[in-house]
Amino acid sequence: MNTALPDVPEVRVVGLPQLTSGFDLVERLDLAMHLKVHGPLEPMGGEQLAALAGQIALRGRGGAGFPFAEKLRAVARSAIGRGVRPVVVVNGSEDEPACRKDTVLINRAPHLVLDGALLAAEALGARTLVVGVTRDSTEASTRAALAERGLSDRRGAPLRARVQRNPVRMVTGESSALIRSADGGPPVPPGRKARASDSGVGGAPTLLSNAETFAQLAVAARIGAERYCRTGLRDEPGTVLLTLSGDVARPMVLEAPSGVPLRYVLQLAGAPPLPQGVLTGGYHGKWLDAYAAQEAVVSRVSLETAGGALGAGAILPVGADTCPLGEALRVARWLASESAGQCGPCYLGLPAAARGLEDVLNGGGPTALEALQQVTRAVKRRGACKHPDGSAAFLESTIAAFKDDLAAHVLGGGCGRPVRGVLPLHTRAPRGESPSGRRLAVDWTLCEGHGLCADIVPELIQLGPDGYPSVAEAPVARYAEARAVRAVRRCPALALRIEDDPAAAPARPPLPPALPPGRGRRALGSGRG
């Protein structure tokens, strides 16, 4: 199976739409249609906006769930204390194979996302807006939306707005990775802990949240806190965007009020009546067993109480005709392959954990299970970013949720069911990830182990224990072509070269030649009123 989700799957609504208003009219709401559907939006002061976010209990919808009002006030305090202009960043880097809600919003309602971001920028006095994306479709929609508002990155503009395109990788969705790439660095976490509200893009205090969070803010600013809170639960008002996939008849993005029974949501997507388990929160989330899934409702508190997680809003049931541990192993291998290669817990620990789970499934017995648990514990809270922690939580939840299947594999000959591949993974590289027909090669007769290449293109070259590149050559994806050229230019020993990859076809036109060192280096218009 393993059918990858399209960028924009089917969209459905339970109750009255808020974020998805107008989706029944057009495929994409341009600025004119956006204003017809949602109406104009008046600016708000900083404390007024923070109060609104507090009244509607708005939390980040990207996974961490941090209170938006606290984040907004922290950025304002830091900017005032340092006397600098803050930056606003929209994180549209939705690279997990099971998540599409932010991608749907940016593709179909980009101006609702920009409304929230511009509202925050005006309230904070920000003069820079960055929208991070990783897909061709989201990049094109964002650029078109900025152009429709007359926003650009030209010098002297009251607000400089730009799109930051990164590769489709799990770690590029990390906030610190997006900030680093916006500053011209590689799109991987920097390995040091720093709060964006203190020091983000360009060292300035940065308000960073995902696309749905800004869209929710724009909806609340239009209709007011009282009306917004009439929908959903009292302590978690409003609607929630969910991506439903896995063992379902109709993969979809669903807008539903908080408090809707999870079993009803699963029924809408055509999930099995009594699934073995339901993965909540995506591939950094947690499993619910069949009985917990029947009782839970769609809310952060309810899912956490049941042992699951709302996370980034991905819901994936698994039916009774597949091996859930085998499904989890496929995901564990993918999580290991998504490592940024910067720290031992991620670069070494996650592949070891995947191999440990494979040993368990292959009848390794209690010894293999104990080894898997040790590796998982060793990975937690030691990584340079959140990827190892999220991956470890997924593995621990897998072990806890499927005890009967685990016992069958550990003590017997397995569960006897095949692995159907119902949990979606990328079946092919997105266009930006596709091979360029080139490879980056290391000339060992010249290499002196300076390591600059690993800093510039860490996804292509990592350093081994001896400080030298661990590979002699690496295929170059299209998104990495420019940085591969930069690595060649900056190598002090001239030990790198870019050459045709005979395994890739067709060959592309030559890349720009490496230059000698030292060379080659309006109003917001938001439609309000």
From TrEMBL:
UniProt entry tagged with the keyword Iron-sulfur: yes
Record's keyword terms, sorted: 4Fe-4S, Flavoprotein, FMN, Iron, Iron-sulfur, Metal-binding
Listed Pro residues bias regions: 507-516
GO terms under biological process: cellular respiration
Example of a GO MF term: 4 iron, 4 sulfur cluster binding
Top-level taxonomic group: Bacteria
Domain (NADH-ubiquinone oxidoreductase 51kDa subunit iron-sulphur binding) ranges: 325-369
Segments of this protein annotated with the region Disordered: 179-201, 502-529
InterPro entries found in the cross-reference section: ComplexI_51kDa_subunit, Nuo51_FMN-bd, Nuo51_FMN-bd_sf, Nuop51_4Fe4S-bd, Nuop51_4Fe4S-bd_sf
Pfam families named in the record: Complex1_51K (PF01512), Fer4_15 (PF13459), NADH_4Fe-4S (PF10589)
Cofactor(s) named in the record: FMN; [4Fe-4S] cluster
Family assignment from sequence similarity: Belongs to the complex I 51 kDa subunit family.
Protein name, entry field: Oxidoreductase
Source organism of the structure: Streptomyces antnestii
Classification of source organism: Bacteria, Bacillati, Actinomycetota, Actinomycetes, Kitasatosporales
